């Protein structure tokens, strides 16, 4: 996935856009956004 950022603090990314969702998959935390696709991030 392009545009994926790896961040230490997931809280700052979640508040950047109102449609950001926090998703946990395989022990990793992801930020996804259905409305604005460029907001993606991963932690862990």
TrEMBL record:
Keywords: Ribonucleoprotein, Ribosomal protein
Record-linked SUPFAM superfamilies: Ribosomal protein L36
Coiled coil location: none
A Pfam family that the UniProt record links to this protein: Ribosomal_L36
Transmembrane portions of the chain: none
Origin superkingdom: Bacteria
InterPro entries the record matches: Ribosomal_bL36, Ribosomal_bL36_sp, Ribosomal_L36_bact
A cellular component annotation (GO) from this entry: ribosome
PANTHER family: 50S RIBOSOMAL PROTEIN L36 2, LARGE RIBOSOMAL SUBUNIT PROTEIN BL36B
Annotated family: Belongs to the bacterial ribosomal protein bL36 family.
Matching HAMAP family: Ribosomal_bL36
This protein's name: Large ribosomal subunit protein bL36
Annotated organism of origin: Maritalea porphyrae
Gene giving rise to this polypeptide: rpmJ
């Amino acid at each position: 996935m392009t545009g994926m950022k790896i961040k230490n603090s997931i809280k700052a990314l979640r508040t950047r856009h109102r449609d950001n969702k926090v998703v946990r998959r395989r022990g990793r935390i992801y930020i996804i956004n259905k409305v604005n696709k460029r907001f993606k991030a991963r932690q862990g």
